[in-house]
Amino acid sequence: MTSLTLTIDLEAIAANWRALDRLSAATVQTAAVVKADAYGLGAARVVHALAVAGARRFFVAHAAEGIALRKVLGPGPQIGILTGHLSGDTELIRDLDLTPMLSSIEQITRNLEALPGHPFGVQLDSGMNRLGVKPSDWQAIAPILLAAEPALLMSHLACGDDPDHPANRAQLAAFHAMTDGTGLPRSLSATGGVLRGPAYHFDLTRPGIGLYGGLPFADAQPVVGLSLPVIQTRHLEPGESVGYGCTWVAKRPTTAATLLGGYADGLPRSLSNRAILWAGNQACPLIGRVSMDLITVDVTDLDEIPLKLDLLGPEQGIDSLANFAGTIGYELLATLGQRFDRQYQEVSA
Ligand SMILES: *Cc1c(COP(=O)(O)O)cnc(C)c1O
């Protein structure tokens, strides 16, 4: 059976976690963000690999994502919920011992009333204006809330991937203003913030994309590979076109290969006439439009046509491919990972 398979290197994910962990002091704990099914790569397998590597704290977006995590982790490791305590999630949070990062006065009230004594964190808005308690509200409720001993005070950087953006310093200052003197554990940084240096590390860092080999962690080991099978080749004379809309026209005698994989598999249609595929280290341009299940590639310059061409591999990582499509590695991973079969390279014990 010909199947389309995304290969996922769990050892590389573990190595990336260790590398990000080494970027902060030994006193700073490094958590792992595994929301959206570990950025599309399969939360159960990824979390197991990270736990073996030494990760003890994890974050997901939704309480329901905690089910798979708790099954893999067993009791003990902390599972934080980044959207906090949403109505309807109380039982899950209690029964699976999840730690909601409460992000509004409404959530704080809900949590303290429904689950008194249950561990929670508080998400503060230091300027991103997405989630979190605003500074003025925090000033009002902090004296009461601090007595309930939050497990974590956290906030999130809007521009952590941009070293020069003034928002980073502004958010850092705002976070200090809201949390200095509380004596509670604090966390500000995702992958980008880890790279901004010790001032941004506090007690806990929360990298996600860097674990999966994505920017802004330029030193990451690549994690995913994707090779697409060639199912036909044909010869084209100059003037002949390829694919829907006849958007690509041969300028020279051309050998065109048709490969399995299309937008139904999560390949962005915006790769049409833009992406490169690789035969080893030889570049082969994608020609014509990406269709639902197929793409077409110019393989004229190859001496021999291989069984498969690499879309993600040693020559091209997720960010380069995302660039062709006008998107970011995060989005590409989250879509590809959900659609393709996954084949895991195990962590060697
Ligand atoms: C997604 C997310 C992270 C991880 O971000 P990366 O950029 O993938 O490292 C950390 N914290 C919060 C609040 C998030 O939403």
Describe the structure.
The chain is of the alpha/beta class and 349 residues long. It folds into 2 domains: 203 residues, TIM Barrel (Alpha-Beta Barrel); 122 residues, Lyase, Ornithine Decarboxylase, Chain A, domain 1. It is built from 11 helices and 19 strands. Strands 1, 11, 14, 15, 16, 17, 18 and 19 form an 8-stranded mixed β-sheet that branches. It has a 7-stranded parallel β-sheet with strand order 3-4-5-6-7-8-9. The model has no long low-confidence stretch (mean pLDDT 96). The structure holds pyridoxal-5'-phosphate. The site of pyridoxal-5'-phosphate (PLP) has 12 residues, from helix 9.
Shape call: elongated
For this structure, the CATH topology of the largest domain is TIM Barrel
Q: How many separate helices?
A: 11
**Largest β sheet strand count, sense and barrel closure:** 8 strands, mixed
- Helix content range: 25-40%
Beta-strand content estimate: 15-25%
Mean pLDDT: 96
Structural category is: alpha/beta
Question: Per CATH, which architecture of the largest domain?
Answer: Alpha-Beta Barrel
Give the strand tally.
19
Our count of domains comes out at: 2
Ends distance: 31 Å
Gyration radius (Cα, Å) is 23 Å
Name the poorly predicted regions.
none
CATH class wording of the largest domain: Alpha Beta
What hetero molecules are bound to the protein chains? pyridoxal-5'-phosphate
Order of helices and strands: EHEEHHEHEHEHEHEHEHEEEEEEEEEHHE
The CATH homology group name of the largest domain: Alanine racemase
